[in-house]
Write a structure and sequence with these properties.
mainly alpha; elongated; about 100 residues
Amino acid sequence: MLSEKMQAALNTQINKEIYSAYLYLSMAAHCESISLKGFASWMTIQVQEELSHAQKFLIIFSNEEEKSAFSRSMDRRRNGTLPWPSLNMCMSMSSW
């Protein structure tokens, strides 16, 4: 049986993994739209990696017969700036 503290920590981590996948998918779509196919491909691979991390944590819950709950507490906007610096990097390279 997982303690409440451990369940909360795992839920937080699952949320972060899925949010990271979302960010990589967003960056992949942007790179694809400006014909940076290599970057788009790499970012798409990262999406799968992040989702596989989340799935591994979900397996812990199922093995322990616990229920997971995805939190919605992640703030996706930070002062009107892009929350992922690599997208800024990709955008700056589009003029090369």
